[in-house]
């Protein structure tokens, strides 16, 4: 998740040049210069996708000016190349959707989670080395170790990848690629990036396991509390109601925990991030000593299947029956491919030509560009840049026929029965990756507002406590409150519902329990601090004490303790604000802040304060009546708009034409740079968000 990972890149693995009559190094430098200005990114592709193209021929032979220095190719050649790439992508096979035809010249992965799931599936089935795209993306012969390394390097994608394997009924052989120790480490990594602090510490989980072992030893010696052991063994896994398939796979406890936690993050993210879930997982890991005794008994059974269940090394899996021995000799054919990692932005990404052009006689044949094109966006790439994102359509690569000229791979060992290929179709309404047009693209700027207000944490603070309301429901509810015309038929509302995991007909925010009292955090008021004291209005009504800020929002709405002592309560409640809002001239660059530090930053006057919602309103409606006016006032101030002009706020921030690309782990919002208001940029609302632990997705803005 580094900044470099967001840029993506184009990598050319091998390029052949015929008839140029140039010294190889000079030809390579000139080609790098020319191709750096070419449009190597197919239009309309999700920015998080990876495309591998096996062979790409020169679209206009003889047009590329390789004999002279030039910063970019001719426009006609560039357009022809863009058309050729688009045609290749249109015909690209999706390994996640089923078997790839033997003659496929291009394959596509919608995002990194899909790619990782497909890689693990092919390795587990013993067919990975028969596929040319894996040889291009991962030159290492030991692809089983590559699976472990890539999953550990990109833990944010592991839940979506595991969900794919479960839906394709391949979770057991895929998890068998990981030892118990590796599964334990991977669980800690997943917990860290997804904001589960109680599970993020591997040491804590290990200490829990050690405690369980100690209890087992006491029980074996006859001096331990047997009742405690019975209670521990009776502990149900905390994911059992949502993920019942875990107990049917015969996995070790670390792998069970990894699968259970990962699928909970996919199926019930709010529950998985509740304060009680992580401690329950730790208790389950440390509890049943009897289950651990059974595992060790199974491990003593000398059979390949039991070896897989108890943590055999990946080489044990791949080498069964010597099936991978022959395949390990396979290496990419000389001059067969050129690997390209394309940036999500068109042009100006210098391709890395890893092999110099070969000078060959004969100018009659068109110069072939034999290539693998891979495109990556906000994640570490599979070579040395971050990898692409997953389309989330829970699919995985099935066994494909070996390409011509590739040695045949022996069938998988009996330890992992090879089930017939089964193509997983995503649920209706989840056509992830396809571009979706909306007139309300600015709604996604509200994610940055939620981060600025510290209601949610970003990749830099995954452990930050967040609002127990799905982030996309927050955007939905706040957006509806800010819009004058919510445009109910706009597709963005369905997209937000799918991102939140809401069922048809389910209202946003269902299950969220807002607090009964409202106190604006002191930090939220710093943006409204002025050199002159402002006047706050307070009132008592309906047994509630309310204080209104001059900007139009409620600072306070709490139960009134006593009508006769209301003024005392007002002063007690506002004392923290008085201390926090007094400006310190020594720490301020503003020359107009000269007020004495002992002076009050506001005055209090009794008056009329309207309730945020009617007497029949729900807690959620009342909470929105508190939150929306504050957010409107904060946005108006940040954007420099008239305070009472709701249409100006809507036009400046929210009603932007955009193209959405949504996958299981990415949301890419593509907007027109020419239509980006300067006020939005100055306010920082267009900041590229990146990984959102609370949402389990990357959010990126792209401007064309």
Describe the structure.
- The protein is of the alpha/beta class and 704 residues long.
- It folds into three domains: 1-140 and 336-421, no CATH class; 141-326, no CATH class; 434-704, no CATH class.
- A five-stranded mixed β-sheet has the order 11-17-18-20-19, with no helix packed on it. It has a five-stranded mixed β-sheet with strand order 12-15-14-13-16.
- Helix 9 (180-193) runs parallel beside helix 13 (253-267).
- It is globular, with a radius of gyration of 30 Å.
- The protein starts with a helix and ends with a strand.
- Residues 1-7, 205-234, 301-432 and 587-597 have low confidence and may be disordered.
Question: Can you give keywords for this protein?
Answer:
704 residues; alpha/beta; 3 domains; 5-stranded mixed beta sheet; 37% helix; disordered N terminus
What's the SSE blueprint?
Layout: H1 3-7, E1 11-12, E2 17-18, H2 24-36, E3 50-53, E4 56-57, H3 75-90, E5 106-109, H4 112-125, H5 132-137, H6 143-153, H7 158-167, H8 171-175, H9 180-193, H10 197-200, H11 202-220, H12 226-233, H13 253-267, H14 269-272, H15 277-286, H16 289-299, H17 304-309, H18 314-318, H19 323-327, E6 339-342, E7 352-353, E8 359-360, E9 368-369, E10 372-375, E11 436-438, H20 445-452, H21 471-482, H22 492-500, E12 518-519, E13 534-541, E14 544-548, E15 554-559, H23 566-581, E16 602-606, H24 619-639, H25 646-654, E17 658-662, E18 666-671, H26 678-683, E19 690-692, E20 697-703
Parallel strand pairs: 1-7, 2-8, 6-10, 13-16, 18-20
Antiparallel strand pairs: 3-5, 4-9, 11-17, 12-15, 13-14, 14-15, 17-18, 19-20
Helix pairs in contact: 4-6, 4-7, 7-13, 9-13, 11-15, 21-22, 21-24
